[in-house]
Amino acid sequence: MYITVIGTGYVGLVTGVCLAEKGNHVTCVDIDPKKIEQLKQGITPIYEPGLEPLLKRNIEAGRLSFVTNIVDEAHPAEIYMIATGTPSRADGSAEMRYVYAAAEAIAGHINDYAVIVDKSTVPVGTSDQVRHIIQQGLTQRGLTIQFDVVSNPEFLKEGAAIKDFMQPDRVIVGVDSLAAIQFMKELYLPFLNSEQQLLVMSAHDAELTKYAANAMLATKISFMNEVSRLCELYGADILNVRRGIASDPRIGSGFLNAGCGYGGSCFPKDVSALIHMAEQHHFDPLILKAVEERNRLQKNRLCEKVVDYFGDDLSQITVALWGLSFKPGTDDLREASSLVFIEALLERGAKVQAYDPVAMKAAHQSFPKAWFDEKRLSLMPDSYQALHLADVLVLVTEWDEFQTPDFDLMKSTMRGRLIIDGRNQYSALKLRKLGFDYVGFGSGVSP
Ligand code: NAD
What we know:
Largest sheet: 6 strands, parallel
Bound molecules: nicotinamide-adenine-dinucleotide
Mean pLDDT: 96
Strand order of the largest sheet: 3-2-1-4-5-6
CATH superfamily of the largest domain: NAD(P)-binding Rossmann-like Domain
CATH architecture of the largest domain: 3-Layer(aba) Sandwich
């Protein structure tokens, strides 16, 4: 099939590359000329394991191309996929202008029946609006063309995006046109073990399903973070509580880790967009608001734990920080807990020495220049140099390389003995035996 993907971020690029890998002819469009130039050379602008070799292979095979202008440059396609961003607006609602701009571009391009597939996470009713925009554009061009709009939300995870796209648990297809369903089957069956994994529903159902999925996962995290506070207050251990409840199949074991809060480009913005959607209908989404608030408070807990130990004035304290990205496997810093933490530390006068295996370039680009210029924040070349004369190590992102570090070397490199474990990665018992002061989340051991 000929497919055009609009937006080459985490979702659009992975989608384009994986569809090409199955033999489709894919044109990826992005308004960012720098990104497109890099991609044409087979260089991925984002860190995503396994993506670059697939990108190169499919460019070389002539199945994958990159353009900045859909109208003049893209090959006519049967399927147009919208994968532009939907970031939060100031009021928490989803910013829809990129999706609508993509719909306008499609309307200016198609000359034959096409299926327009929305992969972006969008409020309920967006498919109607996209249909309306395309219809208007076609009318302006004096064309009468049949087309269908499908809501097909994406569930891939950054860091495991290729695997998630190649072997999805399920594919949600929101549409009522039989022709479009047939196209979706042709597109996705090569990725599925059985047709049962393709869940067909209305576009509105599909749009809400995506928000409900992310909100449910965010709820599990915030719930466990709340329980971890109770553990700290009552001297109970969250790791045992988690073991005890995760073995209940009604609860499941995923997303039950307590820690320094969730971040990323999806959960925070999607929870707040869902709150906004509820409020638009004068409905008070009590649970969602609590999930959001608990996460906001949880991100502050890292600095609170530093202050609990050293006192309010941190001007003599050097903090080593391991992990900047919002989770391992990605260089994405959007809404990362590290951002809130660094800002709080700098406000109290601390000096921060940070290291991340892949997000250093992204950190250089996104943190305020003044932080570096004033030498309050330094990005260090490796994890041990980040520890140099540090009073405390704070683990924020649980990258593999931080899992079994050389604790003896750490001890001789650091000035202090405190380890604050934002992801409950280390054994409190082991670290205490080695002579460290260990502070985790919810292990009933906070000083
Ligand atoms: P992103 O910000 O990484 O990428 C969006 C891309 O769209 C950018 O490269 C931007 O330049 C481009 N763009 C914007 N307007 C355009 C236009 N008019 N024409 C062409 N290109 C345009 O976004 P993302 O993380 O890939 O997310 C895309 C959507 O998918 C969002 O709605 C997001 O919520 C959803 N989603 C993201 C993930 C994830 O893990 N990142 C997972 C599932 C769903």
